[in-house]
Amino acid sequence: MSEDDIVPTTWGEERVRLDEWESSTIGRLLLESAARQPDRAALQWLEDGQLQSLTWHRLARLALAGAARLRSGSETRFPIAVMSDNSMSWYVLFWSAALSGRPLVPINPNLTAGEVRALLIDSGPVTVLASDVHGRHLIGRVREAGRDLIAADQVVEIAEWVSSLGEAADAIVGETSLPFAVEPADTLVVQFTSGTTGEPKGVVLSHQACLNAARTLAARTSSAEHEIWCSPMPLHHVGGSVALALGTATLAGTYVMVTDFSALNFLESAVQSNATFIGGVPTLFLRMMEDPELARMKPPNLRAILLGASAVPATLIRRIEKHFGAPVLVMYGQSEAPAITETSREDDLWTKSNTVGRVLPHRELRVVNTQTGLPCVLDEVGEICVRTKVRMDGYLNRPEETAATVDSEGWIHTGDLGALDRENRLHFHGRLKDLIVRGGENISAREVELAIEAHPDVAMAAVVGLPDPTWGEVVAAMVVLNPGCTLRLEELREPVSAGLAPFKRPVHWRIADALPLTASGKPQKFKIIELLRAEI
Question: 512: Cβ–Cβ under 8 A, 6 or more apart, which residues?
Answer without folding.
Answer: 478, 479, 480
